[in-house]
Amino acid sequence: MTALSIGKGITLDSAEAMEATLRQIGATRYHSLHPFHRLLHGGKLNKGQVQAWALNRYYYQSTIPLKDAMVISRFRDRNTRIEWRHRIEDHDGDLGNEGGIERWLKLTEGLGLDTAYVESTEGILPATRFAVEAYVHFCRDRTPLEAIASSLTELFAPNLHEERISGMLKHYDFVNPDIMSYFSRRLQQAPRDAGFALEYVKQHASTPTEREAVCNALIFKTNVLWVQLDALYHAYVEGHIPPGAFAPKTS
Length: 251
Prior knowledge:
Belongs to the PqqC family. The protein is an all-alpha fold and 251 residues long. Helices cover 69% and strands 0% of the residues. It is built from 11 helices and no strands. The chain has helices at 15-29, 35-41, 47-73, 78-92, 100-110, 115-120, 126-141, 144-149, 157-171, 181-204, 208-237. The longest helix is centred in the C-terminal third of the chain and has 30 residues, at 208-237. It is globular. 37% of the residues are buried.
């Protein structure tokens, strides 16, 4: 595999072969393997660095409903639209029902960040913005099959969420279960979403070329997630914060 594709030499002559390749991509490229996550979950970051992570990640979380609305717009099939629609509700919430974005703001507020500042996204890293917008553009411009396939990182999310909940609660005295509610809720939501997406691509990717496109879409998405952590590491671990970006208080 290359940085952009499965490369040559991988035979995708069945749905099962494609699924095996997808799971191999997750095992080797999912952002749970990134050094920043290991610092975060191992209690090696200070509060300002955790704030920077939560602030930047908000932009990704708050853009997911826009991405999913883009995916819905690609389908004339009513059943697919209905199935995908609940993802928007999961993040945006509904009248009287808290959604994932509100839960993420509970996290940033609990970490001591001003909600208006978080929602403005004025302090996020340029690489965060570029990566997230690239994801939206991918779902707009590539095939509907690839748009759905790009969501398959959710296959690997529950283990990461479990590690994050236990690690952060154990190591940080400024973290409590209430502000970690986003992740506990996703333990139920992510497997449902991933299950539908996996069955969809297995059913609709009927040629080796289409199966390759599915796998490459997942590689693209792992790159979207990985590069955001690269930027966080460069800015807040190595200390190269770009002008205008969030700067944690030193006291």
